[in-house]
Amino acid sequence: MLHFLILVVETLLPLAVPAGMLLGYAGRRELFEVRKPAERGAALGALIAAVLAALKTGTGFVVREYYDLALLAVIIPAEMLLLVTLFRGRSIPAEKAATPLLQGLVLVLAASWVAYCLPDIFIFPSRFAVGVVEVVSSEFIFIIAGYLTGLLLCLFTCRALYKACAAVPAKILLPMLFAVMAACLFRQLVTAGQMLLGRGLLPRYDPALDLIIFLLDKVRLIFFCIMGTAALPALFLLSRSGNVPVEGDNPAEKRKAKSRMIRRIRWSKAALASLLLGLLLMTAGVHFNNREVELSPPTATAATTEGLIRLPLSEVGDGALHRFVYSSRRGVDIRYIVIKKSESAYGVGLDACDVCGAGGGYYERKGQVICTLCDVVMNKSTIGFAGGCNPVPLPFRIESGSLLINIEDLEAEAPRFM
Hints:
This protein is of the alpha+beta class and 418 residues long. It contains 12 helices and 9 strands. The chain has 2 domains: 288 residues, no CATH class; 119 residues, Rieske Iron-sulfur Protein (3-layer Sandwich), CATH 2.102.10. The strands form 3 sheets. The chain has a 4-stranded mixed β-sheet with strand order 1-3-4-5, with no helix packed on it. The longest helix has 39 residues.
């Protein structure tokens, strides 16, 4: 659940924050003419993203970096021109400020922003079943729940920022919007530079490479600055909530004014809470999700004269996960696991799977067997059967109180561990 929640937030939140603030500024300035271009642009961008996602998952024909570069070539100059247009029109009446140029820029930016961010959102569901043995399971439901929660959080953040920013005076909001847009431009320029150098479309001079590497280290910090700046409109409203008198010509007008103030405070608190949650997911959540699990060292095993490995049931029959290693004739360490699944059934398999390979392994947490690479929880009853992220099955038999494994079956799997 956490994995896809973080993926969605990392993908969509950089779009939700500037989009919410920009829409809030348009609402505050009563630039209602830009609403339809924004909606049409977003629909066009979603269509482009859906086509790209279908081509990417169905054919692999599209090179994503070239697609992203083409969009950034549109986004970067359009954002610069939008900032200039907003600055020049800051003191112009609303009916004159919503020029065809501004409407066109909003349409282009909405389309390119959505087309840039949404392909991954459409592609993520194709990965839901990777490593999942049973589609109808709590594990699969948690994955979908994480994905949908990420979508809802980003949409809610955009909505809350729009509501909060629409209540801030335009002359105070505009510098905040400029700061967020400038930071977004910086991130996009660094990304474009990285792609151009990586694809060899720019000469690979050492100073240019050093500069890109230096700036890449700062990109995450810049995003945190974006989040902090986006919180300023809400903090501004909250700071003034207790100092602004409720005005009205009669009690009914005063009640309306008070109701508006209460809604603004609620949306401000909602914006701060959603930004904070997004920040926590992209810091503590990422750290927790990417943590490395220290596996216990496997127990070395050797073959008998009959070419068998004998594991006494008294040692592996406690229901816990046991990790072993066998050194092949060519010196390859082949890891395998044994676990008692029920009173009479054992699960035996390699410490590797067909999905993640042999680079990770399995560990036990609170009675559950988990893959270290993809954090998928195994259904203990299916260990010993092929499929999903399950351990590669290993033939065995039980005889005279021991679990027997033929070393030739292990030798055949040596290439998997090379």
